[in-house]
Design goal:
Largest sheet: 6 strands, mixed
Radius of gyration: 37 Å
Shape: elongated
């Protein structure tokens, strides 16, 4: 049962509702026994054709004996009509007790449904929160589709298979055992009549039941909205972390998830109503059969009415639990596999751990320093013995072939990864001693691929500073050479840019990411060459925006087009995770080494 420990932990928060569930379930079982178990005793008394002389009950109070006495007295006092009147009384008693049974049965699901939905809602939120805190390196080996499947299909499987089946394993076996015993005891001669008549009533009940199961498109829309937020989160984790936007995205997801919870809870309650209502209507039909069939028995057709009605009652009661038990084991196995997949993510180690008691980094004063920094994963060395000091206000360019470790080196500064060995210091303090939020608040990132969200232009620019005024947003757009194309849009800054900015051109998307970095106004910039995939005109506009943004800031530039870094204060040439060359553009050209070869290759192109 260890695999279900997390679900049990969530259930502890609903002790009151769980107590109500057990109370309503017990009351439902009691009235079920009243409606079926006591019926033969009443029928045995009612269908006796001789006048009954019953002795008054004596000794301690006995409910059955007392009812028998009162019923026999009533029959004797009313003569031949007493039998018919007593029969009507029994039909009413059966209907009332069955109604109360199903009423409490529905109440039990009414309090259980929010518990089940809350457990799934909590599980979904915990999984999403874990995705936000996991290091970026975790997702390099995971497919986004697999993560989406765990968030959707696996959690739905847990909801349908595990949460529901656990309840079935308690009720269904006991119901089946008791009812099977009763059916074995009863005469099989009645079976032929039942198998001819009950399918007709079953068809009628089925028609009524299907009218209670209407489809709702709202739940599907909300689920799609949540998946969209999740997709954007997985695709934009670097930007979310860099701009400390975890809370913003988290609140958006929780709001969507809570809406989905409320909609699905209403649907579940309506769906749960179908079963008890169908059963109640079925019993009303059976009560009518009992009334008219009982009159035939009283007419002398030789049928044992009490056995007939009891057999029908037992037969209708065994259908649902027997069908449920036949698939319980299979469902539990499927649910167990889904839980294992969810737990794999929830139990994944968080290698980049925030220091809640860390130093708050309010400003950047002097330098960023790498001291003997190495980084690797799965026995693969990515960076080896990096020693580098970046003075405030300087621009450092990182160049090298693909896979040399440029992006990894830059990612170590905002702690997207933690160094395997060595340390990184800012202003002489290890970055691990700063709080993650304050560290990343001093850094902005512009990636090679623009990462935008399905929202308005203004909200995308203000991602890292959601409390920014419209004037501040416009100033940032102006610095990023984006103001002109934004004002030409029909809705200006309130224009929705579509999924990942699909309504904008490549240059427009990139200028928005620059405006976002400008608005945050950090002292440290990490720039992954933002112009490498743009046309000539867009490249000029974006490069001008980058030059404006880099003024009076400390910049780490990951360079693909070497022509854009000629004026860098220092160029670091990486090869196989090590610093192979370093110096200014002119110094490296004169060295006739790796850098000179890279420059010559691009000039040939």
């Amino acid at each position: 049962m260890k695999k279900y420990a997390r679900l049990f932990k969530y259930l502890k928060e609903h002790k009151r509702n769980i107590a109500l569930y057990f109370l309503f379930s017990i009351l439902s079982i009691i009235f079920s026994l009243v409606s079926i178990g006591t019926l033969p005793f009443f029928l045995k008394l009612i269908f006796s054709k001789e006048k009954m002389a019953l002795a008054a009950p004596t000794g301690s109070f006995n409910l059955v004996q007392y009812i028998n006495y009162q019923l026999g007295t009533y029959i004797q006092s009313n003569g031949s009509n007493g039998y018919i009147m007593a029969l009507a009384f029994i039909c009413i008693a059966v209907i009332v007790s069955t109604f109360l049974k199903n009423l409490f049965y529905y109440f039990s699901f009414y309090v259980l449904s929010p518990i089940k939905m809350s457990v799934i809602s909590r599980l979904r939120i915990d999984l999403y929160n874990k995705l936000l805190v996991l290091p970026i390196g975790y997702f390099t080996e995971k497919r986004k589709g697999d993560m989406m499947s765990r968030m959707t299909n696996d959690i739905n499987e847990i909801e349908l298979s595990v949460v529901g089946t656990l309840e079935g394993f308690i009720k269904d076996p006991l119901n089946v055992i008791i009812i099977l015993g009763g059916l074995i005891y009863l005469s099989p001669k009645l079976s032929l009549f039942l198998f001819i008549f009950l399918p007709i009533t079953g068809f009628i009940i089925g028609r009524i039941s299907r009218t209670l199961k209407k489809q709702s498109s709202a739940a599907a829309e909300k689920q799609g909205e949540g998946l969209s937020i999740l997709d954007e989160t997985l695709g934009g984790l670097r930007v979310i972390k860099a701009f400390n936007a975890e809370r913003l995205l988290q609140n958006s997801f929780i709001a969507s998830n809570n809406d989905l919870f409320r909609i699905r809870n209403k649907m579940q309650i309506r769906r749960d109503l179908a079963s008890p209502l169908s059963e109640f209507l079925g019993v009303v039909v059976l009560a009518g059969i009992l009334w008219f069939g009982g009159k035939l028995v009283l007419g002398g057709n030789g049928l044992e009415a009490e056995s007939f009605i009891l057999y029908i009652g037992l037969f209708t009661q065994i259908i649902n639990p027997a069908k449920s038990l036949s698939t319980s084991f299979y469902n539990m196995q499927k649910g167990s596999a889904a839980i294992a997949r969810i737990e794999e993510v929830l139990q994944a180690p968080v290698s980049v751990v925030d220091n809640p008691n860390g130093i708050k980094m309010d400003s950047f004063q002097s330098s960023i320093e790498f001291r003997n920094v190495s980084f690797g994963y799965d026995d693969v060395t990515v960076l080896k013995n990096i020693n580098l000091k970046i003075e405030k206000g300087k621009t450092i360019a990182l160049v090298g072939s693909s896979g040399a470790g440029k992006s990894t080196l830059a990612d170590l500064v905002p702690r997207f990864h933690d160094a395997t060995s060595g340390e990184i210091l800012i202003d002489g303090v290890s970055i691990k001693d700063y709080t993650l939020n304050s560290l990343r608040s001093q850094i902005s990132i512009v990636t090679q691929e623009p990462i935008l969200f399905n929202d308005t232009i203004a909200n995308n620019i203000s991602l890292g500073k959601p409390d920014a005024t419209r004037a501040q947003v416009e100033d940032a757009a102006k610095v990023a050479n984006a103001l002109n194309f934004i004002t030409n849009k029909d809705e200006g800054f309130d224009t929705n840019i579509g999924d990942r900015g699909s309504k904008l051109s490549g240059g427009e998307r990139q200028r928005l990411t620059i405006a976002r970095a400008v608005l945050k106004n950090p002292p440290i910039l990490i720039l992954d060459e933002a112009t490498s995939s743009l046309d000539t005109e867009s490249e000029r506009l974006v490069q001008d925006a980058i030059n404006n943004m880099m003024q009076n800031r400390t910049s780490i530039v990951i360079a693909h087009r070497l022509s854009t870094i000629r004026h860098a204060d220092e160029i670091i040439v990486l090869q196989k995770g090590e610093i192979a060359e370093r110096g200014t553009h002119e110094q490296l050209l004169q060295a006739h080494g790796i850098y000179r070869r890279l420059v010559d290759m691009q000039e040939v192109k």
